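ok trying again, last paste got cut off:
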Amino acid sequence: MHSFIPGRLLRRSLLCAVFALTALAAGVSSAKPSSYLGMGTQTGTPSGDVRASIETKKDLTDPVLSPDGVPVGGDNEAERPAIVKELSFNRSMRLGIQERLGRTSNVEMVNMTKDYLARMFGYANVSVYYLSDKDLTSAVRTGQVDFFIAGSDYFAMEQSMGGVEQIASLWPNYAETPSAVSATVFFMKRTADRKAASMPVSTVSGREFIATAPDSLGGWLAGAGELVRRQMATYESLRTRTVFAGQDMPSLLDAVRRDPDLVGMLPACELEALERTGEVDPEEFVIINRRTDDGLTCRHSSEVYPGWVFGAVSGIDPTLKKAVTAVLLAMSGLKYGSEWALPVTNRSVYDLFYVLKIGPYQDLASWSLQRFVREHAEIIALILLMIFFILSYATSLSILVRRRTKALREALSERDRIEAEAVQSRQHIANLERTGIVGQMSTIIAHELKQPLGAIANYGNGLLRRLHRGDIDPKRFEEALQEVVLQADRASKIVERVRSYAKHDYPPRKVADLSIIIENAIQTFRRSRTTNAELIVRMHSHSMAEVDSWEIELAILNLLKNAADAISGVMDPKIEVGLEPDGEENWILTVGDNGPYISDEQLSHFFKPLQTSKGAAGMGLGLSIVANIAERHAGNITVARNGPRGVKFTMTFPRLAKIDPAADLPENKMGPETVSIYESGGNGPVVRSVVGESRLDPAAGIRRSDIPVTVHSGSLSRAVDIMQEGVMRRGSSRRSTDPDAIDESDVPRNA
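nice, full thing came through this time. structure:
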């Protein structure tokens, strides 16, 4: 059955059973009747029960007298104050003592006080009663006692009800002031991981507690207030997690010794008293949240509060009250470690009650509209006033809104009209810009169209000549027709691309080799433009990127054309094209020239549409097109001076991300750097060198005989291949001996 009960609940049940049996055994063995009052069960009336309880609780232990008649422990040198000698007693004054004070470490101070009062006023004139809290409350409120000694928490409760006043406060020698006497100490069993002199208060979070009594200031209330202030628990949750052992100190200590997770709670200075009697080993327990800066020298874990109070019931003889006050303040209790001092305020105790929502503040634990209105009357009045002002403002504002609604509607209508005109203007400008861009692209693409159209015408003429000669070879005839179809398809795609740009219908980008795109652009440039500049190209083979090949080729052609225009008439003209990786993320494509010096103002106008330095021959859209192409490829293009002469354009766009860096894929391999030098004069020879550990610097002087002469690949069609083969034949003074080969005159010339 116990396997279904949580360990914590089982532990609490066992502790409660142990303390219940202990209390039962104590009640059976004790001959004294219970101190708690019934409701008239003994005499028939509550007042009669109080009087019967007082007679039963009358001090049965008369002071032990020495041979000379002075109580043992009394002050033989003390003399009665004059006001005491003037008193006459019709009955003995009655002193009620809170029963639990007789079981604390300061019990000697209780005995000394009652014995001292008996000696000063006469043994026949002082009656002392030990009463429980309920009995003492009944006696105080019904006038059955004149004075009482109780804890500050009990006195604060009675003071909140009215009818009592404080005439003295206990001041022990372990407290710097009478206001710093009571507190709670948290302690746990010392273990291997608890070697410090003090553990933080967070150590007790979520644990169970064992304490003396729920109404004891030092035994539980002060400690509960400390945890509630730190928001570590609520008053109700602490009550459910705490087992109360009463005044059975040995059982409480044994429970903490047995359970390392159990937190003990005792009044401050009780551990020191038990250590002096040998009941507790100083190294046996570890203190939780030890405080040392509040005037209480005993080990404690909570805030400090006043100690015992000597109170008087309202309505007694003022002379008697004055005499008792004088006797208490004249009493020397240093040999017992305490003395009576002037009354101190109980404000800290009331603050504790407020935090725990008990005593005079217990109604705060439940919400009520009446109390809420009473406590927040000023705030509620302020809120109502603000609501009134808000309603007044809203009314005036609504009137103003109605007056201005018509004007606002007219303004909105005017704004809509202006926006519509602006949209039409922007659309008109966009159409003009698109028309200009299409016109500029048409001039550039015309070079591409001339090549396939010229090839178609040349192949057609060649077939007609063979047909007239009767030299018809079906295989050659089929190959020629395939080339015608291929060139016608290529021309059709070029036209479709121009139309798609006019409609802003951009095709998707695909993975391509930038080195091939650059080679195609250079070949197109060299066929379509005659320049005497030396063209130097540095790039890596197999440079992969996700691009629109046609757009990148168009951008390079535009930059090459601008460079050729800039270096026209310059001595030793030179154009440099470079493609280099920028880390693992970007490609850097550069096109530079050594044209004339360019000022800062001229550089600032390079990418602005409709601004050109070519006069009537230019439209001012070429570089704007290049900038748009760079942006569509998630990149950018910049321009700067290329040293003392010329400019260099730098285009940056993303590289192709590696699909699997660890895999041996073609997309992950970049070839070595290749330097190609194109000599001036259109389709002149090409010098190529693959650079290994050192870069090839053309400016340093290149020995053409040391570098193998090759043909720069990357032609756009088989017709261009045949044309280049024909150029090699003329260069080497050799002709083909194949009678079926197409005549050299059939091959298209440079466009």
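cool. The chain has a mean pLDDT of 76. The CA atoms of residues 367 and 409 lie 52 Å apart.
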